[in-house]
Each structure stands twice: as C-alpha cells, then as structure tokens.
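Example record

The entry below shows one chain as it appears in the dataset: sequence first, then structure tokens.
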Amino acid sequence: MDPSKIPKKRKLTDKAIPNVLLENPEFAQDSKMYQSLLETERKLDWTMTRKKVEIQDALSRTPTTTRTLRIFLSNTVSGQVWQNGGEPSTTNFETGEGIPAWQFRIEGRLLEVANSRHRNLAPTRKFSTLIKKMVIELERDVNLYPDGNIVEWPRVGHPNSPLDGFTVRRTGDTPTKIRVLLYLNHFPEQYKLHPELANILGIKEESRLGVIQALWSYIKLNGLQDKVDRRIIRADDKLKPIFGGDGISFQMLPDLVNRFLVVPDPIVLWYTVNPGAPPPERPQAYDVEVKMEDAAMKGRMAAMLQSSKESGATLMKLDEEIALLAQSLHNSHVKKVFLESFAKDPAKFIQTWLESQSRDLESILGSGPTEGLTVRQEELRRSEFFQLPWVEEAVAIQHGTNLAARGMQ
C-alpha cells in the first residue's frame, strides 16, 4: 500500500473538559485551576501574536540608535632640526630623506554601548563608513608650499576598502593650523531645518520622516484639522508664513517639508601642528553623536520571530497530551453515566437503549414501524423531486444511452 495514500490520524485539539465535570463539587478546585490555565494560555498566545506583528512592523522600518563617535587628532614629525641635535641633516631630494616634514593623522572609532553584553555587540564599523565627506584645510603660504593646502575625501564612489583613519603628509618646519570639516553619514539621513520651521517645531536637525511627524504632532496638538474635511490643515499665525496661505491639504505636507530642509552643517575641528616641538603624547579627542542602524536590536528582534523547531515540537507534543487527557476524561464520564444508569434500573435502561437504537436504524433505512417518519423533514421534501412526471422518462433515456455505449464497445 502506498504510504502517501494512508490517511493521516487526526490530531485532537480540543482541551476543554465536559461541563458536568467542571460543575462537579468533587473537582471544583481542580477544574477552576485548569480553566484559569486555559484562559492564561489564550491571553499569552494573543499577546505573543500581537508582539510578533509589532516586531515585524518595526523590522520593516529598520530600528535606529544614536552612538558616540570618538575622533582622534594627532601628528608626528620627521627630519626636523631639533631631532638631529640642532644640526641640519643630510638631505636627499630624490628619496625625500632628511627633508623636514610632518604627518597629520585623523582617526575615529565608535564607543561601545554601556551595559551591553559581548555577544550582543555588532561588528565594529570603520571610521570611513561613518562619514560622507571630509575636507582638510591647511593654513599655509601657497607661495612657499605649493603642494596643495586642501585635501578632500568623498566617500561616494571611493574604490578603497573601509579605513580606520587618514594621514596627510606635508613638508615644512613652520607651525600650521588645520581645519577639518566632517560630514557625518547618518542613518536615516539628517537635515537642517530652515529657521522659520525650526522655531515652530523646536528642532534644528532631524530626518525627513522625523520632521513630518513633528509637524503633524504640532497640527494635532493645536487642533488645526478642518472640522468638516479632515484632509484640510488650517494654518495658525505661526504656520501661515510656512503654508503661504490659510491652509493646505494633508497630501502636501511632505512636499512642504522638503522646501525647508537643507544640508546640515559639518563638524568643524581645529588642530595645530608645530614641527619645532615634540608632538603631544596624547592625541586630541572629540566626541560627536551619529545616528545609525541598530544592528544588535535588529538581530534580537529577528531572533524572536524565529521560533526553535525543538520548542515548537515540544509545545505541540504537550498540547496533544493535554487533548488526549481531556478526551480520556470525557470518555470516562460517558462510561460512568452509562454504567450508573444501567446499575440503577437495568431493565428500563436496556429498553430505553433498544428504543434509541431502533429509532436510529429507522432514520438510516427510512422504514420500519414508523414508516420512515423519523427521517428528517428536509430529506422527505427533497424525495418529492424524484416523483415528478419527467423523471421516469429521463431515467429511461439515461438507461438507453448506457446500453448503447456498451453495445459500441
């Protein structure tokens, strides 16, 4: 026999206990406890399902967090007079050896989140992945140092792999001021608000979605929706210059917000290189906030949605065992009622049982002492269909067709 055609055994899923047992004083306490457990299980299942839907919705929006980026500025020098004991060194112009020079170094790393476990730490991101653009400006005389006083690093389209830092090397022995402009690579992308809108919402920099939500919160808080048509936003005295009128439709809010968003200001850092003195023992450090994707949170949320096969199989096995026990209680109750009725009055019980079986048999066969009166009225109503005048002719035609088909074979 083909195993695939073997009917699968139907699993029991009903875990309810018969009401007769629940109302029995002997099992009142146990029954109440069991019912409480079933109610708790239903609430827990509903809560877990709701939380899973909320997590799936949150994953579609990508969770974000704010991390601290620590930037280090330092420098080294080479070929300086003070390094050679006050005597000029031999200079090789072909190799560059002996020429006074200095190197400016800028590095960065993300600080670890406080109270975070090691296994929850996401892979460390390189410094170059956290900035979109960097400009280093050197305040030097162009006539004396024509080798370029502006160094620019654009992240977009850069062929190199991620870097932990950058080094700028220049020749010279005079103090030089350096200005570093950093454009951070936020996620989601951040924008600077125009002062008119920033003064109303009370925020200076935010993502596009954050600005729209803040504006909508201001509208809801001040009741600026039209009383009749809720799609119309009425402007108050502060929003009239923003809207350019008395009101706009709800669909125009994103376009309106875009007109008041500009590129945020860069992070400006200053550093002075003095080749005539030993470099500082410790680098200068600056902390800036950067918004980025919360990979650790996303991983934990995704893990919550992936239930273990072993735990799922264990829960299913426990549910089947509970259902079997509930069915066993039901069967035991039926047997108990059967035997108690038989023991109370055997003759009357057997007579009643035989009458019941007789009625069931008459209902199935549609005949007997009651002449089929126990058959359901719906079946009797449908039986009149076969007594219509054309039924006999239709049966004859069908029978003739079957005989003709057999003859052709």
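Notes for this example: Residues 346-384 form one domain. Residues 284 and 290 are 19 Å apart (CA to CA).
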